[in-house]
Amino acid sequence: MPTLHRKEKLLLYGSNIWNFGDGMLGPLFAVFAERIGGNILDISWAWATYLICTGVFTIIIGKLSDGLNKERMLVFGYALTSLFTFGYLFVSTPIHLFIIQAGLGLALALSNPTWMALYDKYSDGPNDGYIWGLADGESKIMLGLAIIVGGFIVNFFSFTALFIIMGVIQSIATIYQAQILDVV
């Protein structure tokens, strides 16, 4: 089993924490959108808003990140994700949901290209397949577990409790990931 670089571990474990927090909403997104008065088209538009904003911002930020501090951009993206996740607490109409989805798209665009560039930078070696397999496989495992936990939280408590827990977990991931700013 290969040894991971210190920054590589921070990136991997921080991402796992973040994926767990993010993944708790999963398929419950449609139920939430319906509860705030959204219909099938609103759900489609909200999800499309998120994906299109993520795609456009990812291209732009990916280009800009080549000349900027990727570690800072990554941490800022994680922090912004936490902020917009807490923003779900204030969503009461489909329009509010579109705004949160666009914000989350921007946050993900700040995080993803920089995370991938940094992880690639620190995973240079003969075991790249294994190292990237860890990143992809662990993220899927965390998302799967998170969906189950998210379902339990909404079923036994509420969406409010879910969004608070998601935001707290993402804030913890941000604090954990911020260690990359100090590690040599």
The helix content, as a percent range, equals over 70%
CATH topology (fold) name: Growth Hormone, Chain: A
Number of domains: 1
Output the number of helix runs: 7
Structural account:
This protein is an all-alpha fold and 184 residues long. The chain has a single domain (6-181), classed as MFS general substrate transporter like domains (Growth Hormone, Chain: A, Up-down Bundle). Helices cover 80% and strands 0% of the residues. Helix 1 runs antiparallel to helix 5 and helix 1 packs antiparallel against helix 7 (159-178). The mean pLDDT is 92.
SSE arrangement:
Layout: H1 6-23, H2 28-35, H3 40-65, H4 70-87, H5 94-122, H6 128-156, H7 159-178
Give the structure's gist in a few sentences.
This protein is mainly α and 184 residues long. It is 80% helix and 0% strand. It has one domain (6-181): MFS general substrate transporter like domains (Growth Hormone, Chain: A, Up-down Bundle).
Key phrases:
mainly alpha; 184 residues; Growth Hormone, Chain: A
